[in-house]
Write a structure and sequence with these properties.
80% helix, 174 residues, 6 helices, flat
Length: 174
């Protein structure tokens, strides 16, 4: 990644969730009294935060890098040194990530109708408790989807950018 794209990723990492929080605050201001405004802000921030964390976990699972096991391009003496090491890197995390990824995709495809019904039920329950103008159920669905997607993107990018660097440092430190 060049310096410009790293700055862009950093900017998006801060900007996208901030836009979501700002929209939550603005929409919550439509409540008729101050107590309902605070209730709406806190409820919607909790829903957005939970969605962000769930999306981030998905991004983490999809973004875990695989260890490069190919010997091509590595000098012979380095290959021999790595083969004489008394241990090899544990790749269980990679295998678990692959397994969870396949499981989530499979269950998601099979149970998509149940997920849709669950999303509608959650949004209706939340919208009943916050008493805001307009169709707050549609807003809650949009909020959940927005923060799921943003969380996924940030979890994926964070895992792809930072985890390989950390793993490389850990492998080099031994």
């Amino acid at each position: 990644m060049n310096a410009l794209s790293k700055k862009t990723v950093r900017l998006l990492t801060i900007l996208l969730p901030s836009i979501g929080v700002l929209l939550i605050i603005l929409y919550s201001l439509t409540a008729p009294d101050i107590n309902l405004k605070y209730r709406a802000i806190s409820m919607l921030l909790l829903v957005g935060g939970a969605s962000f964390l769930c999306g981030g976990l998905g991004g983490l699972l999809f973004g875990i890098p695989k260890k490069n096991e190919i010997d091509e391009g590595i000098p012979k003496d380095e290959i021999e040194q790595t083969r004489n090491v008394s241990y090899i890197a544990n790749t269980n995390l990679e295998e678990i990530s692959d397994w969870f990824t396949k499981m989530i995709i499979g269950i998601g495809l099979v149970e998509v109708e149940k997920l849709y019904k669950w999303l509608i039920t959650i949004s209706e329950n939340i919208s009943d408790s916050i008493n805001l103008l307009g169709d707050s159920s549609a807003y809650v669905v949009s909020l959940i989807m927005y923060f799921l997607i943003i969380g996924f993107i940030e979890g994926y990018l964070g895992t792809r950018v930072f985890l390989p660097r950390l793993l490389t440092k850990a492998d080099g430190a031994t």
